[in-house]
Amino acid sequence: MSTITITDLEVYYRVGVPDSERAQPQRLLLTVELELDFAQAARTDDLSRTVDYFGVSQRLIGLGTGRQWKLIETLAADIASLLLQEHHLVDSVRVQVKKFIIPQARHVSVTFQSSREAV
Length: 119
Hints:
119 residues, elongated
């Protein structure tokens, strides 16, 4: 297996338990690790044999439009499920969500991992 990693993708989603926290989109950073076998893509230089990471990043940037989540745990699980559903070459995915809500901490993060067998 090989891994494609998108590190600290900046997105703006409505996330938070209190309604006031979800009133405006807030900055989050997403790190996504996609595990797949892209050896054939590397041999043939063929994008169709791997995952278009630019397309994934654009999909994630737009994911928050018209949506909201109370928990970043739910958000991470939703992203993992979406990526496994939309990218059949991916065997497993790991999603980290960083939220900047506690002033005394650099960030709070959750990490969720799922595989094709779990979907």
